[in-house]
């Protein structure tokens, strides 16, 4: 694989978490990935996390790496929350009227859901479909189906399979919102204008950079805008085929040292 982009311009590299940095089903963070991020930091390249997860649901091994390497740039909840060195640069909560409309529909159709805030998760009901889908992400949640009434919610995650996608599409409940599937049995619903790309743009502007100074790695459908917007977008070998079509480069599988291999070939580690 030849790399035809100017790498001297890269000042910050963002990484998705699940199936990019970390294999959640195996609770596995490759040693080569840790080494790659450590070397980037030592060379003065900023490292950021850009994930669909809320900060409160980061895996323990990822948190350990963040603490040890001093990572302090976060685009979380699919760009709904943006933090730099402990400062919140932007936070986009779903409007209450839209949440009422969604929850009324979910309750009517027996769809359980998780409400994602920056520091906590509240669910409607610990049903089988919810727990089997969400527990690999986090078991640190409580039951409170009306949490949204008094608190800001960045994302709401209803749990249903693809057979109900058409029902949702025809229900006119996504006004100003979008649904991005992250699991066979669940989608993220958040601000229609929201994305990891928007969050990264906010970070870049804060640092006096443009998107040409940014590289990003991802694997899922919620990474499409991010890889399209940055200067160099890299899809993991294990990534979704639609994402690979948008990426500048495709690296190896996460369990075959995909991050390290690309950064090494690029001369950044």
TrEMBL record:
A single Gene Ontology CC term: cytosol
* Alphabetic keyword roster: Hydrolase
**The keyword Cytoplasm is annotated on this UniProt entry:** no
Q: Name one GO molecular function term.
A: magnesium ion binding
InterPro entries xref list: Cof, HAD-like_sf, HAD-SF_hydro_IIB, HAD_sf
* Signal peptide as annotated in the record: none
Q: Does the keyword Hydrolase apply?
A: yes
Name the domain of life: Bacteria
Q: Name one Pfam family in it.
A: Hydrolase_3
Protein name stated in the entry: Cof-like hydrolase
Please name the source species: Canicola haemoglobinophilus
């Amino acid at each position: 694989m030849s790399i035809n982009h100017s790498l001297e311009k890269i000042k910050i590299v963002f990484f998705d978490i699940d199936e990019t940095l970390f294999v959640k089903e195996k609770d596995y963070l490759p040693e080569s990935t840790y080494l790659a991020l450590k070397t980037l930091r030592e060379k003065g390249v900023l490292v950021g996390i850009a994930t669909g997860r809320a900060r409160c649901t980061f895996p323990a091994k990822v948190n350990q790496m963040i603490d040890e390497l001093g990572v302090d740039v976060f685009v979380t909840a699919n760009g709904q929350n943006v933090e730099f060195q402990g400062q919140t640069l932007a936070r986009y909560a779903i409007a209450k009227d839209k949440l009422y409309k969604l929850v009324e529909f979910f309750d009517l159709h027996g769809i359980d859901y998780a409400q994602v805030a920056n520091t906590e998760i509240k669910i409607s009901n610990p049903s089988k479909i919810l727990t089997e889908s969400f527990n690999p992400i986090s078991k640190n949640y409580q039951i409170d189906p009306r949490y949204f009434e008094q608190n800001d919610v960045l994302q709401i995650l209803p749990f249903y399979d693809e057979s109900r996608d058409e029902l949702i599409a025809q229900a006119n409940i996504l006004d100003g919102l979008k649904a991005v599937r992250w699991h066979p049995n669940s989608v993220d619903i958040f601000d229609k204008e929201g994305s990891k790309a928007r969050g990264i743009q906010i970070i870049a502007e804060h640092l006096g950079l443009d998107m040409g100074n940014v590289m990003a790695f991802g694997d899922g459908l919620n990474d499409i805008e991010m890889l399209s917007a940055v200067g160099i977008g890299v899809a993991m070998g294990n990534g979704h085929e639609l994402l690979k079509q948008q990426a500048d480069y495709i690296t190896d599988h996460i369990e075959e040292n995909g991050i390290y291999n690309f950064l090494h070939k690029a001369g950044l580690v």
